[in-house]
Known about the structure:
single chain, alpha+beta, 4-stranded antiparallel β-sheet, 13 helices, 12% strand
Amino acid sequence: MKKWMKHSWLACLLLGGLVFFSWQWWSKPLPELFIQTDALSAQVSNWQQLTGREPGPEDLDRIKIEIAREAVLVEKALAAGMQNAQVIQKRLASLAGFLALLDDTDAPEATQIEAAISAGLLRSDPLVRRYLAEAMRMRLKLDIDIVTPTIAAQQQWYEAHLQNFTLPRRIQLNHVYFSHEDKPRALEVSKHLQTSATPLEEALLMGDVFYGGQKLPMKTQQQLESALGTEFAQASWGLPLEQWSAPVRSAYGWHVVWVIDEIKARQQPLEDVAAVIIRELEEQTMKAALQAKIDQLVTQYDIVWPVGQINL
Length: 312
């Protein structure tokens, strides 16, 4: 009985110790990650320039989340030694010279780099931070396995984005050109061509020289707008095939138009665009998986904001 009690006491002691140390391990505080004072104000300023308005509470939350994500990526990159990349070392040495961190302007590059690091530029210089964060993102991507989307997933995405796979209508046309001041002659030639059987090549010689060419290849309406202006494109788009038009105005003058041919708008079949859809779905999957990885890393830190800014 005494032997059993002795062993029971020892077992209780060991169990109690295990519980105590487990609790100590689980309750260990997270390492603090301090956000730089000007980080939020700089991002808010960028937001205002891009949107033309002040960020609301939800906008501020999103801005702060992105700042926290970048800060964590920078810390992980530094822990992985990515600051030793040549591009960062060169940047640090350049900053040391530009900011006159050393009295000796001919100091060795290694000394300049040490001075820049001592000045906190690994974490404060925007270009260094951006490179470190992007390098860490690339490292994280290497650990993400992407499965090729199923046919069903491809079909679903295809049906939800049919407008992306519609080839627009195109027309091919010839035109006889006249300057802005020559509308009366354009009207006269138009009337003549509409009531006669003038050969096409002969008709094209009845106007002025157009340096953009009188025989235009197949073009979409948007392409016609870029070439000759919105008014010309809209008017030409409604013309019947193989008939001379009334004078049509463009940014350059007047045109009597003959639409030779058209290719009607058509839907591309799934098999023709499957590669595009697969790439899009894989990119979406990669983006979501990467974001999840980064957010998981953020939970490993206690993000501390400067005084006067709410902690996340």
